[in-house]
Design brief:
Layout lengths: L5 E8 L5 H13 L5 H22 L8 E7 L3 E8 L14 H5 L9 H8 L2 E6 L4 E8 L5
Antiparallel strand pairs: 1-2, 2-3, 3-5, 4-5
Helix pairs in contact: 1-2, 2-4
């Protein structure tokens, strides 16, 4: 049987620094009461990081290119899709950051976003259609992990 998803919220934001906080707060407001406090805090972190990646890497801070956020829920999970206008640019696979190498200056201090995202939610999917990238974040609801 196919899971029934209900859309809670859809919004767009300009690709400006700081809009990741707006996305995080709007998602938290829409999902309040659907996840445990801990799961909601983790999802907020993933939404902020995912939105920042979309703004910076997908849309390259071009304010006229929107980042879209779609939020759904089902009896067993919540889902947040973050969509940028990154075109055909591939999103590289992320590796586990090496803290010792970063502290020693052997690796860039950047590269924590996808690591955090993958460790904050239950499922992460990245898709693209040649014009847009979609980052899908899924967190299971406590009643149905």
């Amino acid at each position: 049987m196919q899971e029934k998803w209900t859309e809670l919220l859809h919004f767009s934001l300009p690709s400006q620094p700081g809009m990741e906080r707006v996305a995080m707060e709007r998602a938290a407001g829409a999902l309040h009461g659907l996840l445990s406090d801990i799961a909601l805090e983790r999802l907020k972190t993933a939404v902020a990081e995912g939105t920042l990646n979309a703004i910076e890497h997908g849309n390259h801070f071009q304010e006229d290119l929107p980042v879209e956020v779609n939020i759904w829920y089902s009896p067993s999970a919540v889902r947040v899709n973050i969509i940028d206008q990154g075109g055909s640019q591939m999103i590289p696979e992320s590796s586990v950051p090496d803290i010792d190498a970063k502290l020693a200056g052997l690796e860039s201090t950047r590269g924590w976003g996808m690591f955090l995202i993958r460790n904050m939610v239950d499922e992460v999917r990245i898709t693209g259609d040649g014009q847009r990238h979609t980052l899908e974040l899924v967190s299971y609801r406590e009643s149905n992990p």
